[in-house]
Design a protein that fits this description.
57 residues, mainly alpha, 3 helices, 49% helix
Length: 57
C-alpha cells in the first residue's frame, strides 16, 4: 500500500525505515520508495502536480 501511495503522488517519504516482515531489508525498501517518489515528481502525479502551480486567490 505504501508503495502505491508514493507512486501515485499521494504520499511523501519520511522514514528512518525498518526491515519488512516479508524479509525485505530497510535499505532496499527505502531506495525503492525514493525511485517511486522521483518518478511521481517527474510525472507530476497527485500532489506533485499542485506543488508546481502558483496559488491563485
Amino acid at each position: 500500500m505504501h508503495e502505491r501511495l508514493v507512486e501515485e503522488g499521494l504520499a511523501q517519504i519520511y522514514t528512518m525505515g525498518t526491515d519488512l516482515p516479508d524479509g525485505t531489508f530497510r535499505a532496499g525498501q527505502t531506495k525503492r520508495l525514493h525511485v517511486l517518489e522521483k518518478a511521481a515528481k517527474a510525472g507530476k502525479n497527485g500532489g506533485w502536480e499542485l506543488a508546481r502551480k502558483p496559488i491563485r486567490s
